[in-house]
């Protein structure tokens, strides 16, 4: 792919050429000025170089660079619009498969946001959890179960015990979602946004001790975005009513997740989860579902 040209890259060449040309011109002009003191010579040298260099830099670098930055900002705005359109389309695809997505998305998005900013304040993964990246994480959180579109409804909605074959199909939804998002990548869309969505979709069922799926990643090998999503997703599943179970109380759900700190979940994310309990309770009680969610007979 052809590398884009950036006007600022020509600055060094422009400065070298103009300074050399200016010095040559000065050598021709100075003799006509007669005998000058050293200070006067330096002053004339600087003045002439400025008169030559500044206009050249302005016309060959500054003006093109201003236009380049303007075009870049315009392109970013267009990309943002296209990103939003793409995410909206993918969300609609997920919602078409999941009649509980509306409330689930609202809750898990807010849980993810709470956890991410709490972890940021704790100084955890500072290279990843910047304000900008957290905003992207919250934006793509609804796509964590996008891969369910590839799972037959009779398996997703089954109220009884799943067979081993059916479990294998369920387990495949993480990779299906990751692959759908990979196919949605484009040079015109921000790579980091899609990459974040892929990490969330593909790894949010991994477990800290390596017993999760689909790749049996463990510890820090699991992307931090997925570790955050995992706690948010499991908590919401526990406190929600399912055809095969009643909703757990918040107390029970907290006890379950805390008991699996270090096995299923990143211990530091669980610390953030504990610290945000009041806010989690507020979201759980405020954002309720109007329709009973469908069954998924495994965690």
Automatic annotation (TrEMBL):
Gene3D superfamilies: Hypothetical protein af1432. GO terms for molecular function: phosphoric diester hydrolase activity. Keywords: Membrane, Transmembrane, Transmembrane helix. It comes from the Bacteria. Residues 79-289 form the HD-GYP domain. The chain crosses the membrane at residues 12-33, 39-61. This is HD-GYP domain-containing protein.
């Amino acid at each position: 792919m052809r590398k884009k040209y950036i006007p600022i890259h020509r600055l060094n060449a422009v400065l070298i050429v103009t300074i050399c040309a200016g010095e040559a011109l000065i050598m021709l002009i100075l003799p006509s000025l007669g005998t000058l003191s050293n200070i006067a010579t330096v002053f004339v040298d600087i003045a002439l170089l400025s008169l030559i260099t500044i206009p050249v830099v302005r016309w060959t670098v500054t003006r093109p660079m201003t236009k380049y930055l303007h075009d870049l900002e315009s392109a970013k705005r267009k990309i943002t619009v296209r990103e939003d359109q793409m995410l909206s389309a993918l969300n609609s695809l997920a919602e078409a498969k999941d009649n509980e997505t509306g409330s689930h998305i609202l809750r898990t998005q807010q849980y993810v946001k709470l956890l991410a900013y709490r972890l940021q304040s704790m100084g955890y993964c500072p290279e990843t959890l910047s304000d900008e990246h957290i905003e992207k994480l919250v934006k793509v959180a609804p796509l964590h179960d996008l891969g369910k579109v590839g799972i037959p409804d009779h398996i997703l909605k089954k109220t009884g015990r799943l067979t081993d074959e059916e479990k294998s199909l369920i387990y495949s939804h993480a990779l299906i979602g990751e692959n759908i998002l990979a196919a949605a990548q484009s040079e015109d869309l921000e790579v980091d946004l899609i990459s974040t969505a892929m990490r969330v979709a593909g790894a949010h069922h991994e477990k800290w001790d390596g017993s999760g799926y689909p790749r049996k990643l463990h510890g820090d090998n699991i992307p931090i975005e997925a570790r955050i999503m995992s706690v948010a997703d499991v908590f919401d599943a526990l406190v929600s009513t399912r055809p095969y179970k009643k909703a757990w109380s918040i107390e029970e759900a907290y006890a379950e997740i805390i008991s699996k700190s270090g096995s299923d979940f990143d211990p530091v994310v669980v610390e953030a989860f504990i610290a945000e309990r009041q806010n989690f309770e507020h979201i759980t009680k405020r954002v309720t579902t109007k329709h009973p969610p469908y069954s998924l007979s495994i965690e």
